[in-house]
Amino acid sequence: MSSLKPFPQDFLWGAASAANQCEGAWNVEGKGVSISDVMTSGTHKSPRRITPTIDESKYFYPSHEAVDFYHRYKEDIALCAEMGFKIFRMSINWTRIFPQGNETVPNEAGLAFYDKVFAELKKYNIEPLVTIYHNENPFCLTGLCNGWQDRRCIDYYMNFCQVLFERYKDVVKYWIPFNEINCLTTKLGNWNHAGILHPGTEFFTDQVDEPSARFAALHHQFVASARAVKLGKSINPNFRFGTMICHITVYPLTCDPEDILLTQQEDMLRNCFSGDVQVKGIYPYYIRRYFERNGISFEITQQDLQDIKEGTVDFYSFSYYMSNCITGQKNAAQVSGNVMGGAKNPYLKATEWDWQIDPKGLRYTLNRVYDRYQVPIMVTENGLGARDVVEDGKIHDDYRIDYLRQHIEQMRLAIDDGVDLIGYTPWSTMDLVSVSTGEMAKRYGFIYVDRDDAGNGTQNRLKKDSFYWYQKVISSNGENL
User: Fold this and answer.
1) Distance CA 133, CA 120 (A)
2) How far apart are CA 248 and CA 335, in angstroms?
3) Tens digits of per-residue pLDDT, 299-309?
4) Which H or E run contains 430?
5) pTM for the structure as a whole
6) In the prediction, which pLDDT does 342 show?
7) Cα atoms found within 13 Å of the Cα of residue 4, Cβ hemisphere only
8) Which of 194, 323, 415, 423 lies 20 to 30 Å from 474, alpha-carbon distance?
9) How big is the CA angle at 110 (ends 106 and 113), to the nearest 5 degrees?
10) Catalytic site residue 108?
11) Do 399 and 386 touch, CB atoms closer than 8 A?
């Protein structure tokens, strides 16, 4: 690949994390209960339960201790520096700063923790990429107003942003207002992405859905994102904001025109809609017609539309793990995946958790996104969830290296195609609690964490083979794969 256009010299190599999946310390130093804190553990075949009342005598809640980044952040950031990170994607847990979500005075102990994290990153010249909201909605707001379906959450969120932007105006440059905001186009997005809990919902993967309430929540997050951009740039004009899309790349299963049309409709709803609002600043024609056809109705004010127009983001970031196929065939074989499944692609292999592996799909996606938006792009999640085995104090995760290598090769090809790709933060820095299943066994990290699905283990860190491989990738700026 040496004849190809190289990665930019200032390319932002790093990896990602999320507070609710790594921090633990769920109720210390004033932190309130987040929606993640009331989710039990589960498996691929046994869904996570949402328990409005926490009962630790009956259930195990993996986020309560997670992998203890709260107490081990210095060790973890030092390992990031050893790998050569230029950037570290992280999130700030809303309930550390505002325990209930609607207070007016922040919790100083929570802010002090992030002061220390940012100081440690600065010590190693690692740029923070901060996701403001990464599935850490205050649980109190679920009871108060059923989460983001209520417009009041915009103001609560803006108060949170005001504190963060003022406190870290000279520390953080890159901000993502909402993680995988487009997940609210799916039924599964109600809880994790909006804190909505309708009566009758018990399990994360089987939620009661009211589409008008769900799309109202998404709209409120669009407005909040736009207002955050405007507020942030009034505080520091050098701030850079990005959308973060869970990109579910879809192909037609066959060349039947019906499959082509279904695929186009799925892509526009799941992937394009949120990007069009946040990057272009418009509500696209096709979504308005979708609302009409499906009886979806909620309040959209002229001020909302004006804010959305004025508060567009500077870069486009997205998660990419896999692709799916779409078909009208009722008997087509199915696979699961991130947020939604689809028809099985006969040309692809899948993981133990039934996620299809499609490196070339990343190049395809990068080109489609850049063609549509013409703004800088970051790939802010990409990785392989797999079982790792410790052998003589080592972890030989060639399968993870192979997955990442193939995807980085396709990124390089996309850059050679002309795509303005500026950063890569694969999932994940260290092993984390899986959102979809609550497991630790489904490991993604470059750094192994000694903790099992029942919460047993020392929490000690161990460098995997992929740690040393990625170290060489970064030091060679993507030349040594």
Assistant:
1) 22
2) 13
3) 999 999 999 99
4) none
5) 0.97
6) 87
7) 18
8) 323
9) 145
10) no
11) yes
Q: What is the DSSP annotation of 139-155?
A: HHHHHHH-GGGSTHHHH
Identify the sign of the CA torsion 416, 418, 422, 425. Answer: negative
Neighbours of 68 (CB within 10 A): 17
Contact partners, residue 397, CB within 8 Å, separation at least 6: 386, 388, 464, 465, 466
What is the percent of the chain with per-residue pLDDT over 70, rounded to a whole number?
A: 99
Rounded distance between C-alpha atoms, residue 126 and residue 119, angstroms: 10
Catalytic residue among 23, 120, 180, 409: 180
What 8-state DSSP symbol labels residue 183? G
SS (H, E, C) 47-87: CCEECCCCCCCCCCCHHHCCCCHHHHHHHHHHHHHHHCCCE
CA angle 179, 181, 185 (to 5 degrees): 145
Q: Is 345 helix (H, G, I), strand (E, B) or coil?
A: coil
Per DSSP (E only), the strands in 210-327 are 240-246, 249-252, 315-319, 323-326
Residues of the chain with pLDDT under 70: 1-2, 338-339
Cis before 63 (ω within 30): no
**Beta-carbon contacts of residue 147 (< 8 Å; ≥ 6 apart):** 35, 137, 141, 153, 194, 195, 196, 197, 217
For residues 217 and 377, what is the distance between their CA atoms, to the nearest angstrom?
26
Among 68, 170, 179, which residue's Cα sits nearest to residue 132? 179
The DSSP output letter for 375 is: S
Candidate list 65, 136, 381, 439, residue with the active-site label: 381
Residues 72-95 pLDDT 10s: 999 999 999 999 999 999 999 999
- Per the annotation, the verdict on 23 as an active-site residue is no
Please count the helices (runs of H) and the strands (runs of E) in the chain: 15, 14
